[in-house]
Design goal:
Helices cover 42% and strands 15% of the residues. It is α+β, with helices and mostly antiparallel strands. A four-stranded mixed beta sheet has the order 4-1-6-5, with no helix packed on it. A three-stranded antiparallel beta sheet has the order 3-2-7, with no helix packed on it. Helix 1 packs across helix 11, helix 2 crosses helix 3 and helix 2 runs antiparallel to helix 8. The longest helix is centred in the N-terminal third of the chain and has 16 residues. It is globular.
Length: 337
């Protein structure tokens, strides 16, 4: 076990990726990076991290910001509940007066789960908590040839125990960074670098020629189709109608254009019957936007009318001011087209 940690740490010291959040032990910056990197590639997350650090240098600055400011800065990153939880947690931390420094208190913050709490605890405070993310699952499942599904209750327990056993408790930050980088750069999902892997001589999956079969997942993601009919309503005064998404559906807190959400495609004639006033134009048909569990098929329309003729609800803003509102990336793409 000690040999496993030593080899990974030695590899990391020679090959680690240079990332801005690794150059600090400031818990605010580390927490910020970890929230941004949830469900996000490092290459994409880095730009957002730098953007947030520049706009909000301290947790107090983030706490003092409006939700609209935070959401606008987050635009395009997806999983917008992360941004809302980030803002909510910043307010809690600011109220306390300092960033919590123990695992349980960090774990209690909105949007922080066991992995994120372990990462912050080890990176910022040197506490001996093992991180278990997708990279760690992959490295451990292959090295020990564990075929228990990683998304099963049993699998989560098995890998949690294994991760804790392998943790270098004297240097938890170094070890955690090393195993995650190792999974991202060498022990990749595909195109593994087994020929240059420092662990290949003791890796059970490599010995049994089953590297690409691990890790195992039990559940298959179910995809749901939804038809969206978005209407870009433009009045005679050069204003566009927008509304803020509420409820517990996707993109809560973001702005959008009037929307008809349906289980099948609605023809333009159907929309014209609902809203007969004005001039209709089909801008885009059948635009597909893929989310984790949903496939959105979008028709995008333009409706030009006099302001007093509009029966749709929302707020009117000038076209030139649309950039001041945070929209889902789907609408940003449609507008660019």
């Amino acid at each position: 076990m000690a040999d496993f940690a030593a080899k990974i740490e030695l590899w990391y010291k020679c090959h680690k990726r240079v990332l801005p959040w690794r150059e600090t032990v400031n818990p605010y910056y580390i927490w910020l990076s970890e929230i941004i990197l949830q469900q996000t590639r490092v290459e994409q997350g880095r730009a957002y991290y730098e953007r947030f650090v520049s706009a909000f240098p301290t947790v107090q600055d983030l706490s003092d910001a409006s939700e609209e400011q935070v959401m606008l800065l987050w635009q395009g990153l997806g999983y917008y509940s992360r941004a809302r939880n980030l803002h909510k947690a910043a307010k809690q931390i600011a109220a306390i007066g300092s960033f919590p420094s123990d695992y349980k208190s960090i774990l209690s913050l909105p949007g922080v789960g066991p992995y994120t709490a372990a990462a912050i605890a080890s990176f910022a405070f040197g506490l001996p908590y093992a991180v278990v993310d997708g990279n760690v699952f992959r490295v451990l499942s292959r090295y020990f040839c564990v075929d228990t599904p990683i998304d099963s209750t049993e699998g989560k327990k098995v890998f949690r125990v294994l991760a804790d056993e392998m943790l270098d408790k004297k240097c938890p930050s170094l070890y955690n960074q090393a195993i995650m980088d190792f999974g991202a750069v060498v022990c990749k999902p595909t195109g593994t670098e087994c020929a240059i892997c420092p662990l290949s001589d003791t890796c059970l999956a490599f010995a049994n020629k089953c590297v690409q079969q691990l890790p195992v997942r039990a559940k298959k993601m179910k995809q749901k189709n939804r038809w969206f009919s978005y209407i870009y309503v433009l009045n005679d005064k050069g204003e566009v109608l927008i509304r803020k998404r509420e409820g517990n559906d996707i993109w809560k807190g973001l702005y959008e254009f009037p929307l008809i959400d349906s289980s099948e495609e609605l023809p333009m004639a159907s929309l014209q019957q609902r809203f007969p006033a004005g001039k209709w134009t089909l801008l885009q048909r059948g635009f597909v936007h893929q989310l984790t569990h949903q496939r959105l098929i979008v028709n995008f329309y333009k409706l030009e009318l006099n302001k007093e003729e509009c029966t749709l609800s929302g707020i009117w803003v000038r076209e030139s001011d649309l950039l001041n509102y945070a929209f889902p990336q789907l609408l940003v793409k449609l507008l660019s087209l």
